[in-house]
Structure to design on (87 residues):
């Protein structure tokens, strides 16, 4: 069941967003994802990050492991769906 309202509970976030953009065909194109806090008082608002090289992205659903800001394991994964269309 999806959460109702604009702000899902912090312990069980669900985003239903479609992100689209155009980019140059290049082996070095990356998608970088950050999980951040929007608290103004947070010392370090970034919690986790991942970078996916799009040349290796397989269309469909995949789990992406998020790393802490020093490259260590976080135990956090994000389920994403890649759809890549030729322009």
């Amino acid at each position: 069941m999806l959460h109702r309202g604009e702000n899902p509970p912090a312990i069980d976030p669900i985003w239903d967003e479609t992100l689209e953009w155009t980019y140059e065909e290049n082996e070095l194109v990356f998608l970088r994802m950050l999980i951040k806090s929007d608290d103004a008082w947070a010392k370090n608002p970034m919690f986790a990050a991942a970078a996916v090289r799009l040349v290796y992205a397989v269309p469909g659903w995949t789990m992406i492991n998020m790393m802490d800001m020093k490259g260590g394991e976080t135990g956090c994964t994000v389920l994403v769906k890649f759809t890549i269309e030729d322009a």
